[in-house]
Write a structure and sequence with these properties.
Blueprint lengths: L8 H8 L9 H14 L2 E2 L1 H4 L8 H10 L6 H14 L3 E9 L11 E10 L2 E5 L12 E2 L13 E6 L2 E8 L2 E8 L6 H13 L4 H4 L2 E5 L3 E6 L2 E6 L4 E5 L3 H10 L11 H9 L2
Antiparallel strand pairs: 1-9, 2-3, 2-8, 3-4, 4-5, 6-7, 7-8, 9-10, 10-11, 11-12
Helix pairs in contact: 4-5
Length: 274
């Protein structure tokens, strides 16, 4: 397991533009969620371009912080876990079954990571790695209570003894994933990470996606389709017709440094003919 010495906390704070309070408080936790979500995007460029994701902390620090890239759930939340532990938070890593687009009672693999934090006498969920529905604040671990966020309202409901996280999208409560409170360890994420970032049929290998959440909008990229969802319900969509347009969107909308992605140009044709 990575140690605190593998984490450069100051560089992380520079990366997310945070210079606020560092006490292990609810306010700090919510601020970190907001700053992280708007600064370090969800993206799968490495698996799409043929490079498996690595989950050791030095690799996460180099990729997400120093190289100004993003990542998916394991990368995002393992990095954030290291930060929270360094700040003195009591953190329990969890695993979830993704249900986006599936029935609420579906049994899918435990392929997602989120964090449970005990703070100020209550338990809160923080998850900066669920793509287009990434949280930019925390949620109380409390059933059947609608919880406002800067973007959509969220709630937790019971499903056969598990928690199911839902978001109000338009006028519909959509289920994001279900989970229990079994503590996970870094080794528990290695197998699903390898599977998702290397299996030829994985959607992280076959397609390109990116997402970023700010205080008033969500940016989402699926292949060459860019969508911007604004707070209040309006959305803008456009197709990125050239690799230059794709790079520009990755740089400006998702804040990704693409200078090290030499094979992106060659891979662009895969997106245009998908």
């Amino acid at each position: 397991m990575a140690t605190a010495g593998d984490l450069n906390l100051e560089r992380y704070f520079e990366r997310i533009g945070y210079d606020g309070d560092r006490s292990a408080s609810t306010a700090t936790l919510n601020q970190l969620a907001a700053h992280h979500a708007r600064s370090i995007p969800f993206e799968n460029l490495d698996p799409f371009l043929g490079t498996p994701n690595r989950l050791d902390l030095p690799s996460l620090q180099q990729k997400l912080v120093e190289s100004r890239r993003g990542g998916y759930c394991f990368e995002q939340n393992l990095l954030l876990r290291a930060v929270l532990v360094e700040l003195g938070f009591d953190v329990t890593p969890l695993a979830a079954r993704v249900l986006w687009g599936s029935p609420i009672d579906a049994i899918t693999p435990r392929s997602h990571m989120l964090l449970l934090v005990d703070v100020a006498g209550e338990r809160r969920l923080i998850d900066v790695g669920f793509g287009g529905m990434t949280l930019n604040t925390t949620l109380r671990l409390e059933l059947d209570t609608v919880q406002d966020t800067p973007l959509e309202p969220f709630r937790l409901v019971d499903v056969d003894g598990d928690y199911a996280m839902q978001a109000l999208v338009g006028d519909e409560w959509r289920t994001i994933y279900r989970f229990d409170l079994t503590r996970q360890f870094p080794v528990d994420y290695e197998a699903p990470n390898w599977y998702l970032s290397t299996w030829p049929g994985s959607h992280f290998v076959t397609g390109l996606m990116a997402a970023r959440a700010t205080e008033d909008r969500r940016y989402a990229l699926a292949g060459t389709r860019l969508t911007v969802h604004h707070l209040g319900g309006t959305s803008e969509r456009r197709d990125l017709a050239t690799v230059d347009e794709l790079r520009d969107s990755l740089e400006t909308d998702f804040l990704i440094d693409t200078s090290g992605l030499a094979t992106l140009d060659a891979a662009f044709s895969r997106l245009r003919h998908a």
